[in-house]
Amino acid sequence: MPALDRQDEPATAAPTATAQAGRIRYLILAMLFVVTTINYADRSTLSIAGDSMQRDLHVSSGELGVLFSAFSWSYLIAQLPGGWLLDRFGSKKVYGAAIFLWSVFTMLQGAIGFFAGAAVVLLFILRFAVGFAEAPSFPGNSRIVAAWFPTKERGFASALFNSAQYFATVAFAPLMGWLVTTLGWEHVFTVIGGVGVVLAIVWTKVIYAPRSHPRMSKGELEYLSVGGALVDMDAPTAAEEMSAKNATSSKENLRHIGTLLKNRTTLGVFVGQYFINTITWFFLTWFPVYLVQERHMSILEAGFVSSLPALCGFVGGVLGGWLSDRLARRGSSLTAARKIPIVTGLLLSTSIIICNYVTASWIVVVIMSLAFFGKGMGALGWAVMSDLAPKQIAGLAGGVFNTFGALAGIVTPLVIGYILDTTGSFDLALAFVSACAAMAVVSYLVIVRDIKRVELPTYEHTAA
Question: Which candidate, 266, 239, 252, 220, places its Cα nearest to that of 91?
Fold first, then answer.
């Protein structure tokens, strides 16, 4: 497949169709950015409402840690089924249904206060349901970017949708903090969930496969194909063939997963994602609580202060993607173009441990902002997956990748909750997060080798 082979070469020039290429792919990317922003706003609702809910519902720090982790338990469980559904039915249908479901489950969390005796249990169930519904989101993002963007634009595209997680905090943390203090914590869930329901309807009008888009020009389609975009991934003309290939048995799916886990580079990327997501989940869950309980800020102050490191994370994420693509276009190998921003950014993230040795709140915010900037810059894992994943199982491969990330979402809130209950301080928690950033660097420097598309063994291509 020449289009795939071309992706592994350093870029010295843009495809010849550049001048004629349209810009529909950027509309698709904008939609992914908005959806992912809402996705992460839904995830962070509990962290903003957490302190008030602790008081109203009499929840301990350990119990809050369990509630924080509820999302990731189901998110992890549903990754492989979610990836399979994406490969089987396409990104538009599966992802659109997911947006609607997770938004409804988020809205329902606003009503748990009416069930005082069972509120914690109901909240756990609803957070579990949100995680289950959100499972196809990032594998879906990765599939859509692989279909809509040539290799030498894929770093920026992947970094932009991934950076939406930081933008979500910038855009919604102050709003959610205001909702808690003005209307009550319940309305954090109802407002954010309601926005998602509307967005699910918009999704159906915007998202198409490249060959199906009503405004797709011949020049842009040629530009994408020549540049290595997998434009036929969800094309209707290939739907029956792709369905036959992807509707594999459990045994074949396990074989595919085994191929990914035996490959040193993909395994290193999976392990690296676990450690990178540890940093993510600290910021998504315990960071606002840290500001309130350790740094004695009000809920409203914590909402606004949380947005500052998140803004730096967004800038770092966009910069990391831009730098990666620029390195590729200037002749660097794809491996170097991806690894340089990743390693540099994650080394910056280790600075979070310095917060244990300062007292001034403004210095803490500066250090957290630096750490989050570095994490954003280094979070190019989805770009790497778009480069690595076999075309036939792009959704499944993204599911395996995200399974490792979801595992961090389970472990991190529980570990930090246990540390707080045991020591009464965030010192060891910040040391834990810093160590995980360092281990992510080790994963990319020691385990990950050449970044190139993984080929499935020939015996797995027997379907005609």
Answer: 239
